[in-house]
Input
Amino acid sequence: MGIKKSSKVSAEFNMSSLTDIIFLLLIFFMLTSSLVTPNALNLQLPGKSKTSDAPKQTGIAQTIKIEQNGTYYYNGTKMSLSAVEKKARAYKKSKGKDAVITISPHSRATNNKVVAIMDIAYRYAITTILTEPR
Output
């Protein structure tokens, strides 16, 4: 009674475990992508807004002008960046959630000067309106 061992190698590939892994990865990425919130600035461009999220213009918005040489003017007064930050903090304390700052950069002002003001407004949760460069 000679029972022979079968020495044939099966050339088939079982796809069921691979599809299970792919579906698990798909579910994982779908769940994690919905939990990630972008770290965005509250920036509104000038123009008409159809949404109700537009800032209330109950008071006068503060204006920060940035000249081409990088100097800051807060409501017409020349200031350093740290002085602008102190003024913005005091303005936020007085106005609360209705605080609005308008940033008016010169067309030749560097982007890092504009972003520095936007960062201050973001840290103190001040609504920011960015005008077109002049």
In short: The mean pLDDT is 79. The two ends are 99 Å apart (CA to CA).
